[in-house]
Give the backbone structure.
Amino acid sequence: MAEALKSVIAQSLECPVCLNTFTDPKFLSCSHTYCKACLENILECHGNDQMLRCPVCRAETLVSNQDVSKLPTNLALNSLIKDVKNQYQFCTNCESENKPQDVVYCQDCGKYFCTTCQNKHSQMPDCISHKVLAMSEILSGKVSVRRYRKCRKHPKEDEECFCFDCRRFACYRCVVMDHTNERHRVIEAVVYENSHMKSIEDLKSKADKKRSCFQKYVDFIYEQKERVSNVKKQCTKDINKAYEESVRHLAEKKELLISEVKGRTEVVEIELDEMKKSAQEHITHLTTIADVVTNKTKIPLDMDALAAHDTLCQDLQEALKQEDPDYNQPRQSSKKGNSISFKRDVEKDELALGKIVNTVAKNIVLPTKNCMNAMVGTPEGRMAVGCYTAGLDIFSADGQHRQKVFKNVVIRGVGFLSDDRYVILNGSNDITLYTPEYTKLNVKFETLSPDKGGFADLTVDGNDQIYVSYWKAENIQVFSQAGGKVIREIPCGGYSPIRQITCYKDYLITASSDTIQLIDKQGVIKYKLMGLGNFPIAAVSQGNTIMIAKLNSDIGLVSIDEYTNELKHVQNLVSDYKIEKPERTWYYLQQYRSGETAFCTPDRLYIFH
């Protein structure tokens, strides 16, 4: 009876998953118990799922953060396992009451043997092939024991049969009593175990093959990753090499450009230094003679002193005869220096940096004095300058006056549609369309009068929409080429759009006081540049950058700079170029299709090459 009880207890201490004695047993919500490590393995098989399904009853248990250690421990079972492990196992083969301690366990006989019985067992011919396990290895957990199961109904009987239909082991008595009449499929337990082990081995073999298949896949991924990593390393190496070479080339180019600037400007500086030296020598000469002659502390009395004094007076008179300094000479030399500028290659490879150029401007006197009021590039690549008295003068990029059109039309603003038709804004803020042959078209636009809108300007975008800005109304009206009523209005947010308004991509460029703004088609200011002086003006370059001109009208100096579409400075194009001082502060900026920059005052057109 004791042996049967031990066998039942031993079976109860086995984990249903690993079939070994429980290690750190954990409860599931369904009350089934498993080893902590077995539950972790089961949970790991389901990826990131936090629901653990019981292998026996399929009930689900929530495992927060996949931390199995937080599940309750089966303390009673844990204590029983410790008590059983602490009990010595005695030989089950000896017939004496004082049984010695066992040293081995025979898997095939299902018995524990002491040293004496183990020696006898090993010498029996039928037992030579039996699998014998040392108790030290069993207790340490290195090997697991396959025990014969004892029937729960008949504790003295081994469960030597297995019923497929009931999925349970049974003794012979149970088979006869419970399984035969129902025609259950019953086989010997050993046959089932062998079949089961073979099935497990087949599954293990397939799992090994599948694992090998996926391992090859993982190895392949690793190889691909290594290839990508090698590409990254090689590209990084090439980039660093290109960067170092580029830096070296840039440094060399920079030194060459600086040397070129130095060479060009030093010639001018030497000329100016020589003029300065000559003037200073004359100052010294005048000062020395004047000091000697006008020294009244001693009056010359004798003949020699009088002669010397007369000579010095004559020298001073000769020095005084020299003409006053000619400011034109240093101005001309300075002009040569001021014409030198750095031209950055914005549209080309940045590594090219740019080149040193001389700012050269053609100075063209306009046919009508102090009347310029608008300027725009023509479809054929020329520049049209409009007059508020009447007429539109056309100039080529070399400064030649090609023709004058609309001689009787007051020009306040001018633009061109995509089919080359003229869009003219007159002094009454009326818009009129003309054919390329200057024929007036019968298209009416409902614009604001000068009383309501104030001074107006005009531009046309790439979609042939016409924009009219009003200084007094502080807004911009948009018209279609078909004329009629305004299709929408763009508020200027409290500032007055003054002079030239320009379309730039999805923005409008407007000017007010000392500020240039880029606004969207709803009037929202996207970018702003302030502190540009009195009434700056902007235009779009052929390279799709923004040019801004600033004029010091008091002394007649104009500067033109290039900016990005976010109004960040790129480079200076024209620096303090001397122009004829205009009678009124009104000017326009445009660029020829061929790249020349046109700057127009009320009296003159300057074309910078």
About this structure: The first strand starts at residue 25 and ends at 27. The chain has three domains: 1-87, 220-331, 359-608. The longest helix spans residues 189-293.
